[in-house]
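Give me the fold.
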Amino acid sequence: MKQDHPDLSVRRQCSLLSLARSSLYYHPRGESAENLAFMEIIDRQFLETPWYGSRQMARHMRRDGHECGRHRVRRLMRLMRLVPIYQEPKTSKKHPEHKIYPYLLRHLNITRPNQVWCADISYIPMRRGFLYLVAIMDWHSRKVLSWRLSNSMDAGFCVEALKEALDKFGTPEIFNSDQGSQFTSTDFTDVLRDAKVKISMDGRGRWIDNRMIERLWRSLKYECVYLNAFETGSEARNGIGAWLTYYNEKRPHSSHGLLTPAEAYDTQNQYLKAAA
């Protein structure tokens, strides 16, 4: 009996399960070993000093004995989506043809789950490359509602994460993001518009609104990513997934005393439903 080629078999399984092949096949993006080492150094330092631009970062590296000029630092920082907060508060590059939505959170008191969701993308270093991670977070509870890994910066993995969050947790009143091309793409904003969600985007001077996700990235990298040096995409997916489950369900968040993000989200959601 003739057997299917392994790749064809996987394709059929993906079709039956409605999975994107990229979620099974993604491989870390490659750079030279030297550049990967420089990128990890830059990433660690940027977590400590997020105001460092390429010039200051290059000086820091030279002081530590690393021969990495400013032009290379600037290219690597762009590849990693690292933008110094004092220089340009927007956290990613805008697309000139995409619509930019107004910022809706000014003077807004965020007091309950599903009032505001937010999203961000981070660079994830690996032993032989790197991936990008997007997370959808409930602003009030700090619960990570969904996430996806990708080896490219197209909008597809962000759309997948958004759809999963909407399917599992309903719709927020407002969705806030930076002005990055992934979040301003029509593929992404059409999902929000179809769900009747108000779209908000950070403007100049509003980089601070990403602070809760920046804290998430810092904890994730120091407590999981840097300790494991993942070899493959599947290893990264399993390791990051386990840590995010711990973050949501086991780790009390400073914003809510002894409650974990999941407890803060579920407890207040149940109270609001009972009051309604």
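The longest strand covers residues 116-126.
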